[in-house]
Write a structure and sequence with these properties.
Strand 12 and strand 13 (471-478) form a beta hairpin. The chain is 52% helix and 21% strand. The relative contact order is 0.06. The protein is an alpha+beta fold. The protein starts with a helix and ends with a strand. Helix 6 (158-197) runs antiparallel to helix 11, helix 11 (316-360) packs antiparallel against helix 12 (366-393) and helix 15 packs antiparallel against helix 17 (495-506). The strands form three sheets. A five-stranded antiparallel β-sheet has the order 2-1-5-4-3. It has a five-stranded antiparallel β-sheet with strand order 7-6-10-9-8, with helices on both faces.
C-alpha cells in the first residue's frame, strides 16, 4: 500500500511539473495572456475530477474583477455574478479574497454569509463550493484571483491547496510578464517616436552594411516607402556621387571607424540637396560590430555659401570662419538632440528592463533571463556609444576645462580605438585661448589623428600645445611613412590637409605640414592670442 501511495504522489508531482513547464513555455514564447491563462486553467482542471477553474483579473483602479479565463464556467453564472465582482467585503469568494488579500474558501454558496446576496446565481448553476485565492504582485497590489469550483459542498484538501498555490504563482508570472512586456513595448514606441521626430534623417544598418531601418524624417525627405527604402536605400543618391560614396563607405566599413562624407540626395520633389552623412558603429562586449547608425543633415545652404565663396573670391577668412561656425553649430545641436531625446529614452528603457528583470526574478525561465541579459547589455553598449558620439560631436570637457583636457581625452579614445599611442604635452597656464581658437585647434588635432590612422602607418603620435609670446602653437608629430614633397603643398594637398589649413586660416592662424627626414609628418599651427 505504501509503495502504491508513493507512486501516486510521484505521478502527481510529475504532472504538476509538466503543467509548470507547459505554462512557462507559453510565457517564454510571448503567447497572448488569455491563451496562457486558459492553458493554465485547463491543465489545473486535469489534476482533479469534477473541478472547474477560472482566472479573474483586476482593473487598473483595483476596484473590480473580470473573467479572463473560465472555459468551463457557465455563461449564466458569469453574467449573473458580474455585479458582485467588486473588490470589497461580502462580495462572494473572489471579490472578498481580493479585498482581504488572503484566500477565501466557501464550503457551500447556498448558506455562506459572503454569498447572501448572490448565492442563488451560484446554486442554480451547480456551483456550491467556491475557493478563491488572490494573485498579488511584489508590491502587494491585486493582479486578480484564481478560483476553483465544485458542484457539491466541500473544503479544500492539502492537495487542493498545493494546486491552488502553484496555479496562483503561474498566473502571477504570466500577468507580470505581460505587464512588463507592455511597458517595454511602450518604451520602444516612445523611442521610435523620438527617432522619427528628431530634426534629422536617421537610419541603421546591419554589420554587413545592409540598411534595416530608416526613420520617418528620412522617408518624408526622399518620398520613398519603407519597403522601397529598405530594398534600395541608395536609389536617391545622385548618380555622379554614388560610385565615390560607395567606395568610401566600403573602405570605412572595413576599418570599422566612424566616418562622414557629403553627397547629393534627391528630395521627394525631385530636387537634389547636399547632405552631410555621419556613420558610427555599435560594438558588443567582445568588440564586434553589431550595428551601424547614421544620420543625414541637409547642408545645402552651407554648400551654397561655399560656392559663393569660391565663385566671388571675397573676406575669405571671414566666410570660412562662418562655415566653421555653422559646422560646429550643427555638431552641437545634434549632440544636444542625442543627449536630450535619445539619451533620455535609453534611460527609460534601462529602467523598464530593470523593472522587468525584478518582476520576473527567480520565476523566469533561463531563456527569458538570457534574453533580458542580452537586451540589457546591448542597451548599455548603445548608451555608451551614444555618449561617445556626443563627445565626438562636441566634447563637454572642451567647454568646461579647455583644450588640453579635451586633447588628453581624445588621445585616450583614439589610442583605444586605433591602437596607436598618442601623448599630449604642454600647458595653457591660467589664461585660456578664445573659444573659437580652442575648437579649431581641437578639430585640427582630430583630423590629423584620423589621417594618421588611415594613411600614416604610424605607431605613435605626440601632440604639443603651448603659448609662445603673443601666439598659441600646436604641433602634431607622428612616426609614420611621412608626406611626399608634393603632398604638403596646398595645390595638391589632400582633403584632410585642406580642411586643417582652412580651419587655421579661419581663426587668423598659419598652418604647415611637412615630411620629416627621419620619417613621419609634422603639422604646425600658429594662432595669435
Amino acid at each position: 500500500m505504501a509503495n502504491l501511495q508513493g507512486a501516486t504522489e510521484q505521478r502527481a508531482r510529475a504532472a504538476l511539473l509538466d503543467c509548470q513547464r507547459r505554462v512557462l513555455e507559453r510565457i517564454a514564447n510571448a503567447a497572448p495572456l488569455p491563451e496562457i491563462l486558459e492553458t493554465l486553467v485547463k491543465l489545473i482542471e486535469e489534476q482533479a475530477s469534477d473541478m472547474r477553474c477560472a482566472v479573474l483579473l483586476a482593473d487598473s483602479a483595483q476596484q473590480k474583477l473580470r473573467f479572463a479565463a473560465a472555459p468551463n464556467i457557465p455563461e449564466d453564472y458569469k453574467t449573473g455574478i458580474e455585479p458582485f465582482l467588486l473588490i470589497a467585503p461580502n462580495m462572494g469568494s473572489c471579490g472578498t479574497a481580493a479585498f482581504r488579500r488572503e484566500p477565501v474558501y466557501t464550503r457551500d454558496t447556498a448558506n455562506d454569509a459572503l454569498w447572501e446576496d448572490c448565492g442563488d446565481v451560484a446554486v442554480r448553476n451547480g456551483l456550491r463550493a467556491i475557493w478563491s485565492t488572490p494573485i498579488l504582485s511584489d508590491d502587494n497590489s491585486v493582479l486578480g484571483t484564481f478560483a476553483m469550483y465544485y458542484s457539491e459542498p466541500r473544503m479544500p484538501s492539502a492537495e487542493h491547496i498545493q494546486l491552488i498555490d502553484m496555479a496562483t504563482q503561474m498566473a502571477r508570472v504570466a500577468i507580470e510578464a505581460k505587464r512588463a512586456g507592455d511597458a517595454l513595448r511602450q518604451s520602444e514606441d516612445r523611442l521610435r517616436l523620438v527617432i522619427d521626430t528628431i530634426p534629422t534623417m536617421a537610419w541603421s544598418l546591419r554589420p554587413d552594411g545592409v540598411v534595416d531601418f530608416v526613420n520617418q524624417r528620412w522617408l518624408e525627405f526622399t518620398g520613398l516607402s519603407l519597403e522601397e527604402a529598405l530594398a534600395n536605400a541608395t536609389r536617391t543618391v545622385h548618380p555622379e556621387d554614388l560610385p565615390g560614396v560607395m567606395e568610401k563607405w566600403r573602405t570605412d566599413m572595413a576599418v570599422g571607424e566612424p566616418c562622414e562624407y557629403e553627397l547629393r540626395l534627391r528630395r521627394a520633389d525631385g530636387e537634389y540637396r547636399w547632405v552631410l552623412v555621419r556613420t558610427v558603429p555599435l560594438r558588443n562586449e567582445q568588440g564586434n560590430i553589431v550595428k551601424w547608425y547614421g544620420t543625414s543633415t541637409d547642408i545645402t545652404e552651407r554648400k551654397k555659401a561655399e560656392n559663393a565663396l569660391r565663385d566671388s573670391g571675397v573676406h575669405l577668412q571671414a566666410l570660412t570662419r562662418r562655415l566653421v561656425e555653422l559646422q560646429e553649430s550643427e555638431r552641437k545641436d545634434l549632440a544636444r538632440e542625442l543627449h536630450d531625446r535619445v539619451g533620455q529614452s535609453l534611460t527609460a528603457l534601462q529602467i523598464n528592463l530593470g523593472m522587468l528583470r525584478a518582476a520576473l526574478s527567480s520565476r523566469a525561465s533561463s531563456d527569458i533571463t538570457s534574453r533580458l541579459d542580452d537586451c540589457a547589455a546591448l542597451l548599455e553598449s548603445t548608451a555608451r556609444d551614444i555618449r561617445s558620439v556626443e563627445s565626438e560631436l562636441r566634447p563637454p570637457m572642451l567647454d568646461d576645462h579647455g583644450l588640453l583636457a579635451a586633447l588628453h581625452w581624445y588621445a585616450n579614445e583614439f589610442t583605444r580605438r586605433a591602437g596607436i599611442a598618442v601623448s599630449v604635452r604642454g600647458s595653457q597656464g591660467s589664461e585660456r585661448a578664445r573659444p573659437e581658437v580652442e575648437i579649431a585647434l581641437f578639430r585640427i588635432a582630430q583630423e590629423a589623428l584620423n589621417n594618421v590612422a588611415k594613411h600614416a602607418r604610424a605607431t605613435s603620435v605626440v601632440i604639443s600645445f603651448w603659448s609662445a609670446g603673443s601666439e598659441w602653437r600646436m604641433l602634431v608629430v607622428d612616426d609614420g611613412v611621412g608626406l611626399r614633397p608634393h603632398e604638403a603643398g596646398q595645390p595638391r594637398a589632400g582633403f584632410g590637409l585642406v580642411t586643417m589649413r582652412e580651419r587655421a586660416q579661419a581663426i587668423g592662424g598659419r598652418f604647415d605640414a611637412e615630411g620629416l627626414p627621419q620619417g613621419g609628418t609634422r603639422i604646425t599651427v600658429q594662432v595669435p592670442m
